[in-house]
Amino acid sequence: MLSRLSRHLAPRRVVHGHCDIPCGIYDPHEAQLAAQTVETMVTKIQALPDGESAASRNSFARMVAVKEQHAERVKREVLIIWGDYMKPEHLAKFPDMHDKVWKTIKLASACKQSIDAEKAAELRRAVDEFAEMFRATKQ
Fold it and tell me: Which of 36, 59, 85, 92 could be disulfide-bonded to 26 (CB atoms 3.0-4.6 Å)?
């Protein structure tokens, strides 16, 4: 009875995610674009006029949503490259990479939690630095 039930509940087809067969296509450009978007949204949010109009509240909510989505995208893109692409020889070349990635992820979280222009600029710089390290591994 149990084996019969298991047969009916078992998946009919097995599928695999993108990284099951490493394609070797990695690029930090998406993370850089996302970090620039976070910085732009913070600037735009800070420039919004103080007001309680529905249009003002709508703009604010939309900009915050975009800022948070892109901060999350920074985290995802950086972590994928760090976890899937970087190898021991890359870490030997950049012994502080783990710390820099950790700080970049923390900055992205801080940008989700606040509307701080300095944190957003710091995030963009950190992602640009990560991109430079990545590109140096390709040489």
Answer: 85
